[in-house]
Each structure stands twice: as C-alpha cells, then as structure tokens.
Design a protein that fits this description.
The chain is of the alpha+beta class. The chain has three helices and six strands; from the N terminus they run E-E-H-E-E-E-E-H-H.
C-alpha cells in the first residue's frame, strides 16, 4: 500500500490527512491525477469514489465470492474502470486470499 492524494497535488490537493488514503500501487498509478472518469454503462463522467466521505457498499459489491469488484453506481463503475480494479495482477492476489479464507473482507 502507498499514500494516495484523493485530490492530487497537481490539482491543488494538499498533504493534509483528510486528503490522504492508502491505495495499492497499481490503483494509485492508474488513478494518476484523475478525479473523474467515464461510467462505462452511461458514457457519462462521474467522480471517483472518495473513501473518506462515501460508503464502499453504496458503490461496490463483490462478485464470484470476492474475486471481482463490481460498480453498482456510476461512481463505482467509473472508479472500477479508471483504477483497473480487476486487473490480472489483483485477480491473482485475490484468488490466493480467497483460498486462504481471508477474503473478501467483512464489512
């Protein structure tokens, strides 16, 4: 995990605690300076999920016993697509965690 700026420094974000969050390196790099992305279902721009102000379960769900994250709102779908949250690397990791009985996380 690494520190992610929810509002990137390049877009005048700060390093104040309320603007920081932990992200996996792949998600953080995929996000880059994005704060919005296209919802693949509607084709419209949507803000990316903010874990400091929004509930995970309002925007995402686990599919196939925790292997895939699916977006259940425009914010969730745009975030899953933009951050490539179901990339090959993370799917392999989740499969190991599922087999070990430690995934998906309990709310």
């Amino acid at each position: 995990m690494e520190i992610d700026h929810l509002l990137p420094i390049a877009l005048n974000g700060t390093s104040d605690e309320e603007n920081l969050w932990l992200a996996c390196p792949q998600c953080n790099r995929a996000k880059g300076v994005q704060t919005r992305a296209i919802d693949p279902d509607t084709g419209r721009s949507a803000p990316l999920y903010n874990p400091r102000t929004q509930l995970w379960a309002a925007h995402f769900a686990w599919q196939e016993n925790g292997l895939y994250i699916i977006g259940i709102s425009s914010i969730g779908r745009a975030t899953v697509a933009a951050l490539r949250m179901n990339n090959e690397w993370v799917l392999r990791a989740r499969l190991v965690w599922i087999r070990a009985g430690i995934h998906p996380p309990v709310e």
